[in-house]
Every structure is written in structure tokens, then in C-alpha cells.
Design a protein that fits this description.
The chain is an alpha/beta fold and 442 residues long. The protein is built from 13 helices and 14 strands. The strands form 3 sheets. An 8-stranded mixed β-barrel has the order 4-5-6-10-11-12-13-14, surrounded by 6 helices. Strands 1-2-3 form a 3-stranded antiparallel sheet. It starts with a strand and ends in a 17-residue tail after the last helix.
């Protein structure tokens, strides 16, 4: 039996220059695996807790030395000697050691760093790519006939950024394209890159102010309205000789919790004046957009605790539009069960650091799939060169992946990892394609 021999945590930097946790795990055969934990800016209040050092002036109080000390101290002592391939057992031991419902004592960043590094080490010990090892773990949880084979995911790619990802230049957080007409992952990436370049050209042609890139690589222009972002993307799609709806569809990440005021149960949109909407008004606005544009996916269209609003939104648009819960579900099975019971949303964004262990991530993916919810494995705005989520999306046949734009190395590392996996799978590589959305398109 291969066992966990040694752990080492360290403080490294993410794509925003903020500290995060890196963990190395050494197995008893000498193999070493490494993982780095991402960090979000647009975080929901139901996420697992990221432990930082606010009492320390270094890095402006954003350091993670306490989390690193936990990795190197009591957490290392707790799992040393455990079976390296018992991912579920190791994750359970870490959760029990923390002893809090949100991993607030040891820090979800410390727990997740170990959990992911263990998987990397186990894959190295077996001499297989990470996605092969993760697929083995995934299969062990499935019933006969359930979605077992690896599948290349459809990318959902950031084109224009707003909200907390780009200085609040727009109310809505991300405006994305989905290359639904592509027959393979490689061709989807090629199509996406062409549209991204065309968006840049359109912005330059119109002399848009502030057209720099946001945290996730999308352009961050100062626009008159939220809808103008969609218009610009569609103009770029046409400039590439592609047809909106057939070749390229639109997705939006509203991130509505960030302009929702719970004391009045209202949504405050300021990009084009000062519009104040209740849940019904916000739902009507999104329905209008879905009718006007080739929008097939809306993420966090309402606030994270506006359950009645979510149920109404799903009743209105759920048959034709993918309605993703990010802040709503926070990759937590308890939250997702509420969504299933209330018929709120029809898709879930999967972020490993929202829940804190690989095993709990599997739990959320499996629960979603068994209840007919679409699954989208996602990066965070604060990312690193770590490419674990690319392997995770393929291994679990998640169907979709949301990494950010085709700019910045922390994003491209994951897109490039998917190219290597597709090559490794060979001619038999299955691509999720437009069926990942399960929505009929023209």
C-alpha cells in the first residue's frame, strides 16, 4: 500500500499578486504531487472559509501563513501514513480535523491544497495522467450505466468583464461566448480565439475608453449600458463570418448578489442610470434579454438567497435557458438539495474552493447530474498555473468548463492542458458539444 509520507505547505502568489496556499505531498514511493489553491473576488457568503492573516501587515493582511502552518503542523500529522489512494478517507479526516461546518478553523485553502495535492501524488504514483486517476475515483461512485467515460468539455469563455472583475464598470459581471458550432475542443478554442481578437478590434475601432483586460482576461471597456456588451460581442462574431445562435451562443454572469439590497429586496442597476427592480422586474429583464439575444446561459441572475425569485425565474426560462447557480449553490450539496426541492435553477457552477475537498466536489457533481442539473467546472478570478480543474472537468464528464478568457497565462495553462488531454485521448476523444447545454439551438 502506498502511503502519505510527507506534506509541505508554502505561501505563493495568485494571478492578482495575492498570497495563496501551495501544498506538496510526497508518497511512500518517492513520487511528489503539487497543487495550488485559487481564490475568488466575487465570493458568496455560503462558501467555505478562506483563512488569511488580517492581523499581519505583510501583503496588506492577505497573507496565508496561518493556513500554511496548519498544513505543515496538525494536518500533516493527521494524514501521514494514510493510504495515498484513499481520497475519500483522507478528505474525511481533514474535514473532521477542522471540525467546523465551513472549514473556518484550519481554512478551506489549507484543506483543499492537501486534498488536491494527494490526488496529484496518487496519479504520479500510478504513472497515469491526473484525469485518468480522477476518472477512476469518479467511476467508483457511479451506478452501472452512469456517465463514466471522460468527455472533453464545452468552453464558456469570457469576452467582456464588468462587476467586481473589472472595477464595476458594468453591473453584470461577465459576458461570455459559447462556441456551440464547434465539432471538437481544439476547434472550439480556435473559434473562441478568433472572436476574442475580433472583440478587441471592434473596441479599438470604436475607440472605447478603458478597454483593458479584467481579472479573468476579458476586456473591460466603459460602456453606456450592460446590453452594449452583448451587442459588441455579436458584432465581433459576425466579423468572424460566424452566425450567432448557430455557431456561437451568448452566456452572461449577472452576479446579482452584488447589486442586491436585502433590506428592501431590490436590485440596483447603475450602469445606465439608477434602475431599481424587484425580483419580478429582474426576471422580466432577463427574459427580455433571452428573447432579444441568442443567450443560452444565465449565471446568478438573482441573488444568492432570493429563493422565490429563483423558482419564478426557472419557471419562466428554465426550459430554454441554462440557469446556473454559483453564489446560490456554492458547490454545497445542502444548498443544491434546496434548489432541487424549490425547482430553482437547472445548472450548477462547480468551484473546488467553494467546498474545500475533492470528495465533496464529486458529491456536488454527482447530486447535480442525478437530478438533471447541468454542471460547469469553473476557475476563480484569482487563479494560478495549477491546471487541476481541466482534468476534473474531463474526468467527470462535467460537459462544460468556465476558465476565463483566452488571455493571461493562468487561464491559458488550463486551456492548453485540455489540448494535451484531447491529444492523449486520441481520435476517440468525445467532445460534449452543444448537447452539454441540452438546449435546442437554431
Amino acid at each position: 500500500m502506498l502511503t502519505v509520507m510527507k506534506l509541505r505547505g508554502r505561501e505563493v502568489l495568485d494571478s492578482r499578486g495575492r498570497p495563496t496556499v501551495e501544498v506538496e505531498v510526497a508518497g511512500s514511493n518517492g513520487e511528489v504531487g503539487r497543487a495550488i489553491v485559487p481564490s475568488g473576488a466575487s465570493t458568496g457568503r455560503h462558501e467555505a472559509i478562506e483563512l488569511r492573516d488580517p492581523e499581519n501587515r505583510r501583503y496588506g493582511g492577505m497573507g496565508v501563513l496561518r493556513a500554511v502552518a496548519h498544513v505543515n503542523g496538525e494536518m500533516a500529522a493527521a494524514i501521514q501514513g494514510m493510504d495515498l489512494e484513499d481520497q475519500a478517507g483522507i478528505d474525511a479526516a481533514l474535514v473532521a480535523l477542522d471540525g467546523t461546518p465551513n472549514k473556518g478553523r484550519l481554512g478551506a485553502n489549507a484543506v483543499l491544497g492537501i486534498s488536491l495535492a494527494v490526488a496529484h501524488t496518487a496519479a504520479a504514483a500510478r504513472g497515469v495522467p491526473l484525469y485518468v486517476h480522477l476518472n477512476r475515483l469518479w467511476r467508483s461512485r457511479l451506478e452501472p450505466g452512469e456517465f463514466a467515460d471522460p468527455v472533453m468539455p464545452m468552453p464558456m469563455v469570457n469576452m467582456i468583464s464588468g462587476g467586481l472583475h473589472a472595477g464595476a464598470n458594468l453591473d453584470f459581471q461577465d459576458f461570455l461566448m459559447i462556441p456551440v458550432g464547434a465539432p471538437s475542443y481544439a476547434e472550439a478554442l480556435e473559434m473562441t480565439t478568433a472572436v476574442y481578437r475580433a472583440v478587441g478590434a471592434v473596441l479599438r475601432e470604436k475607440d472605447m475608453e478603458g478597454a483593458l483586460v479584467g481579472d479573468e482576461g476579458g476586456y473591460g471597456p466603459k460602456l453606456a449600458t450592460n446590453a452594449q456588451a452583448v451587442d459588441l460581442i455579436l458584432e465581433a462574431v459576425l466579423a468572424c463570418g460566424l452566425e450567432p445562435g448557430r455557431d456561437v451562443a451568448i452566456a452572461i454572469d449577472v452576479a446579482a448578489s452584488h447589486f442586491y439590497r436585502p433590506e428592501t429586496a431590490t436590485y440596483h442597476l447603475t450602469a445606465a442610470g439608477d434602475d431599481v427592480l424587484d425580483s419580478a422586474g429582474m426576471t422580466a429583464l432577463l427574459a427580455h434579454w433571452a428573447k432579444l439575444y441568442p443567450i443560452v446561459s444565465i449565471e446568478d441572475g438573482l441573488a444568492e438567497d432570493d429563493w422565490n425569485g429563483w423558482s419564478n425565474l426557472t419557471g419562466m426560462l428554465g426550459d430554454s435557458v441554462q440557469l446556473i447557480g454559483d453564489d446560490l449553490f456554492a458547490t454545497q450539496t445542502a444548498r443544491l438539495r434546496q434548489g432541487v426541492e424549490r425547482r430553482a435553477g437547472n445548472a450548477i457552477l462547480i468551484k473546488v474552493n467553494q467546498v474545500g475537498t475533492l470528495s465533496e466536489t464529486f458529491d456536488a457533481l454527482l447530486l447535480a447530474r442525478r437530478h438533471g442539473y447541468r454542471t460547469i467546472v469553473s476557475a476563480r478570478s484569482g487563479e494560478t498555473e495549477d491546471t487541476t480543474i481541466a482534468d476534473l472537468a474531463v474526468a467527470t464528464a462535467a460537459g462544460q468548463i468556465k476558465i476565463g478568457s483566452v488571455a493571461r497565462s493562468e487561464r491559458l495553462a488550463k486551456y492548453n492542458r485540455l489540448l494535451r488531454i484531447e491529444e492523449d485521448l486520441g481520435p476517440s476523444a468525445k467532445f460534449a458539444g452543444r448537447e452539454a447545454l441540452s438546449i435546442k439551438l437554431i
